[in-house]
Amino acid sequence: MKFVLLLSLIGFCWAQYDPHTSDGRTAIVHLFEWRWVDIAKECERYLGPKGFGGVQVSPPNENVVVNNPSRPWWERYQPISYKICTRSGNEDEFRDMVTRCNNVGVRIYVDAVINHMCGSGNPAGTSSTCGSYLNPNNREFPAVPYSAWDFNDNKCNGEINNYNDAYQVRNCRLSGLLDLALEKDYVRTKVADYMNHLIDIGVAGFRLDAAKHMWPGDIKAVLDKLHNLNTKWFSQGSRPFIFQEVIDLGGEAIKGSEYFGNGRVTEFKFGAKLGTVIRKWNGEKMSYLKNWGEGWGMVPSDRALVFVDNHDNQRGHGAGGSSILTFWDARMYKMAVGFMLAHPYGFTRVMSSYRWNRNFQNGKDQNDWIGPPNNNGVTKEVTINPDTTCGNDWVCEHRWRQIRNMVAFRNVVNGQPFANWWDNNSNQVAFGRGNRGFIVFNNDDWALSETLQTGLPAGTYCDVISGDKVDGNCTGLRVNVGSDGKAHFSISNSAEDPFIAIHADSKL
Length: 508
Ligand code: QV4
Ligand code: CA
Fold this sequence. Notes:
Layout: H1 2-14, E1 27-31, H2 36-50, E2 54-57, E3 61-63, E4 79-86, E5 89-90, H3 91-103, E6 107-112, E7 116-119, H4 166-171, E8 177-179, H5 185-201, E9 205-208, H6 216-223, E10 241-244, E11 264-266, H7 268-279, E12 304-306, H8 330-342, E13 347-352, E14 360-361, E15 364-365, E16 374-375, E17 378-379, H9 401-412, E18 418-423, E19 428-433, E20 437-442, E21 448-453, E22 459-462, E23 469-470, E24 473-474, E25 478-481, E26 486-491, E27 499-503
Parallel strand pairs: 1-2, 1-13, 2-6, 6-9, 9-10, 10-11, 11-12, 12-13
Antiparallel strand pairs: 3-4, 4-5, 7-8, 14-15, 16-17, 18-19, 19-20, 20-27, 21-26, 22-25, 23-24
The structure holds ligand QV4 and calcium ion.
InterPro entries: A-amylase/branching_C, A-amylase_C, Alpha_amylase, GH, GH13_cat_dom, Glyco_hydro_b
GO biological process, one term: carbohydrate metabolic process
GO molecular function: alpha-amylase activity; metal ion binding
């Protein structure tokens, strides 16, 4: 009996739902389109010291080079081979990054594009990031190698038109992308070899791109072929962390729950609904967030990978729609990310973006394709300004004080229960996490002035939204918690950031 219990505990902790972060780190960051050399440096100089658990990296395998439009970000979702060779860097640079990040306690998660190869319309030739030959028309990808047998043309040789038909969604082409026949052991083996190569290098897990477009059983067959994680950094028997990109906002044939057996799923309702609430659209109010999470129709917390925005829906691709908050709406965005990081629901991912020139025509951004900051297609370095923000048009939301400090907050309150909820029936809300942290929001059009139960021990705390605790002093607001756990909060509705957060480590 005891043995069975122990086994099931091990099963949970070592299994595909566990991100395998080090020392109770609770959030990862998507460094979208960053080069491996910059990520290695960022792990050492920032992510490690600030308590980030890991990095989701852009697809590391060879992709098609698209010149019209000029080098869009989305060319990286059109694989040509499984060579580690992209504009983010080569295999040596990738290995160096994984080693250096792991050594400072920061994990690497790879965006694995395994549902398809490139679009059917790309010309034959060597327009690829490593110069490998491709002939999409003949289904030839000799650098893998794949040939006509390895694609789903015999099941479907056209587009997905109907998302109410699971067969189409999984066997037809997503945006013209040549759909792999993942029921074939040969294809499964090629994909697993690629993923095992990365596991052996030391990555901690994978985002499975377009998982909705793959049969859950085919994914499972691939996962069953994967190695355990590298014991240089992970305990013996650790399974790769898996989170599957399944966009399920309801109303389609395919449900996120069909994928729970394989790992976590991306919960797209999270960002779509939180954006609606913070924008106060459709009569939504922050007070309704009292039962946020499963109570809002989302997947179980231990199956959810959550985020406010991602690389698709921050520019109108993927799902979520106009309610999605991004760095372009900085004030509301910080509140949303703050709420996500304070709330116990799900495993959290922070977005880190680059700026591009938006050009809206009839509500659609004509420049939604623009790739990372570059010189003639060569991705620019992520430079760091004296004030610790990033240069060269890298936004680095993860370095914004409010966001960086809320990642630390989440680590400090890890495992603590959701507690001491308060609201004014409108858009002023507060809640704590056990006796370790407390956060207050004012998203109403009038001031907040309230004495609230924080659950924290008596003392003076530094608000980590308006400032930092530095050498025992506070550069922002101070909050005095009495011996009864209560504190008075005042938040003007015109404050630069209309929220306050305090936690055990911000005590002065
Ligand atoms: C064009 C035509 C097609 C035609 C095809 C012929 O539009 O009608 O059949 O040529 O070759 C790009 C272009 C698209 C082009 C296609 C193929 O935008 O116009 O088709 O390439 O050349 C990203 C982008 C896509 C992009 C794709 C590949 O968002 O625009 O397509 O990369 O470069 C659904 C899915 C979900 C998906 C989401 C975007 O359920 O899985 O759409 N999200 C993931 C990634 C996303 C990525 C893909 C999946 C595909 O997060 O970034 O798409 O890997 O909701
Ligand atoms: Ca498919």
